Amino acid sequence: MAREASLRVVFGIAVLDLIGFGILIPQLGVYGVRFGASPFTVGLLVAVYSLMQLVAAPIMGRLSDRFGRRPVLLLSQVGSLAGYVLFAFADTLPLLFLSRVIDGVSGGNVSTAQAVVADITKPHERARGMGIIGAAFGLGFVMGPALGGVLGAWGGNLAIGLFAAGLSALNLINTWFFLPETRVPGSPSATVRTMKGAASVLTMPVVGRCVVLVLLFTVAFAQMEGTFSVFLLTRFLSSGAVPLEGGWLVHAVHPDAAVLKEASLRSGALFAVVGVLSALVQGGLVRRLVAPGHGPVASSGGRGGREAPVAVAGFALTAAGLALLPVAPTYGWLFPVMGLLAVGSALVNPCLSALVSLHAPSERQGAVLGAYQACGSLGRIVGPALGGLLFTRLGPAAPYGTGAVLVGVGGVLALSLVTQVRMSGAGAEQSS
Length: 432
Hints:
Blueprint: H1 2-24, H2 28-34, H3 39-67, H4 69-89, H5 93-105, H6 109-120, H7 126-178, H8 195-200, H9 207-236, E1 241-244, E2 247-250, H10 257-290, H11 307-324, H12 334-359, H13 365-394, H14 398-431
């Protein structure tokens, strides 16, 4: 009973944290432009959170192993609270950056929550426990962007920041009063995301290919996330963007309040659609596609024979969505295009992570999953910055065309992954 109660508390912590994070996703570009940021600077604003999180994650993991999960959770929640309050009152671009740096450094909430789950579940229950964190991600990314759009239209970055800070305050109360310390001698170490660890798994069959694929996919998808608000402003809510000698200049560098309100609502609505579709696909469709008796027939000795073909389909849908995005004739056409991106990403991400888990050596599960997550974080650093640079130098369509090419290359590599998984499964059957 105590374990179930702790799992419910962890679920609540993760949901509140990810709603607060999701609120900001479609709004960072809107407020970056408000303070005079170029598309490249907006991309850096999005990327800096993941950069600081990647730097701080190993430190947070080691601290939680040494001093316990509860103190690190409380510390990270205080940091998130401070970052959101600063975001609320930021009236310059440097303050906006500082708020994201603070929140990124303290962004150990979810990884520490995963360590709590590992502490209180037995190995055969681990998948169910981690599924709770996955469900929290789904809820956060469904509710967050929609709330962010409404709050941004109503009260700008002040309303967004204070609401997210309120969620962090609730998390502090929840952790302080209801979550006991779970770290005991013999508990598994927290999964640590490091690029050094990522390099060490590249030679592993299947796992190494998945690490490369998640990096390609995340760079491409993050280019869209990092520049989409600016794209929306330039394409549908201003007089557009014009080529200059030093790059492209957004006409609406200082848009009026009505344009910002409209941008908040429209970007929030589109990202809400992405969140809902992703949750539906990950919650039901993926499970049916990869279950025995469904999807492509492939024998792999129980080691992910169906996940690989489903991931290929996800790459194809995502490439199509990125290619179609810059040529959408009206705002309404963005909804089906974003739908393609939502379904594609919802097929790719769980299938790749499942393949990594299935093919990683049992004694190195934590290190391999940490390396895999590190490559995802690297993609969320490189993607927004690259997308912003391409937008600034080559025009609004450049990030999406480049992203489509990257995902297309990933799709070709994923096709070879299908064969690699089958060979690995056949080898496992023979050895048994």
